[in-house]
C-alpha cells in the first residue's frame, strides 16, 4: 500500500482567521505532499512495502530514519487535518471523553493548559499530544515526526508545532497559535472517536 495525500475535510479558507488559506496551501498542499512523495520513494523496495501505515511507522522507528520521518509525518498529518474543524474548540465535549479527561487529567481546563504547555515547551519542531497510555489519557510531546505510537501509546489529539504550521499566521508566537488551536479549531468529536477506539 502506498501513501496518498487526502483532500482537506474543509475548504482551505474554512479555518480562518485562526489558520489561514495560505498556511493550509503550504502545509497541506506542499509539506504533507512532500512527506507522501518522499515516503513512497523510500518505502519502495524496503521491508515495510505492503504493510499498513501504522506498521510502517512503528517498524521503521529506530531502524530507517528517512522512511520513519516521512511515514511518521504522513500519519501525524492525516489525523491533524481531522483534528480541526471550522467553529471547533470550546467546552462541549462528548460526555464520555470529558469524564475521562476530568478523571485522568484533573479537569478540561487543566488538560488544555497542559496540552498548550507541552507544545510551547517542545524545543524545536515537533508535536503536542493527548494520548491513551495504559488505559489513561495523558499529555505528551514529541520531536520531529515522532508520535505517541512509537512510545507505547495511542494519539487521540495532536497539534503540529513545526514552524510551517503557524509562522505565516502567528510568526514566532507559538503560544498564541496553540491557544487558538484549542479554543477555536479542535474537533472534539474526532478526538472522542479515537478515544473510543483506543479504549476498546
Ligand atoms: Fe506539519
Number of helical elements: 8
**SSE order:** HHHHHEEEHHH
Helical amount: 40-55%
Overall average pLDDT = 98
Secondary structure class reads mainly alpha
Q: How much strand?
A: 5-15%
CATH architecture identity of the largest domain: 3-Layer(bab) Sandwich
User: Unreliable segments (pLDDT under 50, ≥5 consecutive)?
Assistant: none
Report the major sheet.
Answer: 3 strands, antiparallel
Named CATH topology of the largest domain? minor pseudopilin epsh fold
Shape: globular
State the domain count. Answer: 2
Defining key terms:
mainly alpha; 200 residues; 3 strands; Helix Hairpins; 50% helix; globular; 2 domains; binds fe (ii) ion; 12% strand
Show the helix and strand layout.
Blueprint: H1 21-43, H2 53-60, H3 65-82, H4 95-105, H5 108-121, E1 126-133, E2 136-143, E3 154-160, H6 167-170, H7 174-185, H8 188-198
Antiparallel strand pairs: 1-2, 1-3
Helix pairs in contact: 1-3, 2-3, 5-7
Bound molecules: fe (ii) ion.
Residues 27, 31, 77, 160, 162, 164-165 line the site of fe (ii) ion (FE2).
Detailed description of the structure:
The structure is a single chain. The protein is mainly alpha-helical. It is built from 8 helices and 3 strands. It has a 3-stranded antiparallel beta sheet with strand order 2-1-3. The protein binds fe (ii) ion. Residues 27, 31, 77, 160, 162, 164-165 line the site of fe (ii) ion. InterPro entries: Mn/Fe_SOD, Mn/Fe_SOD_BS, Mn/Fe_SOD_C, Mn/Fe_SOD_N, Mn/Fe_SOD_N_sf, SOD_C_sf. This is Superoxide dismutase.
Amino acid at each position: 500500500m502506498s501513501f496518498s495525500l487526502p483532500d482537506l475535510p474543509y475548504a482551505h479558507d474554512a479555518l480562518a482567521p485562526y489558520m489561514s488559506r495560505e498556511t493550509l496551501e503550504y502545509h497541506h498542499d506542499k509539506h504533507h505532499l512532500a512527506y507522501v512523495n518522499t515516503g513512497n520513494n523510500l518505502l519502495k523496495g524496503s521491508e515495510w512495502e505492503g504493510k499498513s501505515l501504522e506498521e510502517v511507522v512503528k517498524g521503521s522507528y529506530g531502524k530507517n530514519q528517512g522512511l520513519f520521518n516521512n511515514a511518521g509525518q504522513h500519519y501525524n498529518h492525516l489525523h491533524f487535518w481531522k483534528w480541526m474543524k471550522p467553529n471547533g474548540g470550546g467546552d462541549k465535549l462528548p460526555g464520555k471523553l470529558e469524564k475521562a479527561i476530568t478523571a485522568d487529567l484533573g479537569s478540561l481546563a487543566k488538560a488544555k493548559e497542559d496540552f498548550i504547555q507541552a507544545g510551547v515547551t517542545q524545543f524545536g519542531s515537533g508535536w503536542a499530544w493527548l494520548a491513551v497510555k495504559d488505559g489513561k489519557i495523558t499529555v505528551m510531546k514529541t520531536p520531529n515526526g515522532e508520535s505517541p505510537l512509537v512510545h507505547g501509546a495511542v494519539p487521540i489529539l495532536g497539534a503540529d508545532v513545526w514552524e510551517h504550521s503557524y509562522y505565516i499566521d502567528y510568526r514566532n508566537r507559538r503560544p498564541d497559535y496553540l491557544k487558538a488551536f484549542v479554543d477555536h479549531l479542535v474537533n472534539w468529536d474526532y478526538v472522542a472517536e479515537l478515544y473510543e477506539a483506543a479504549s476498546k
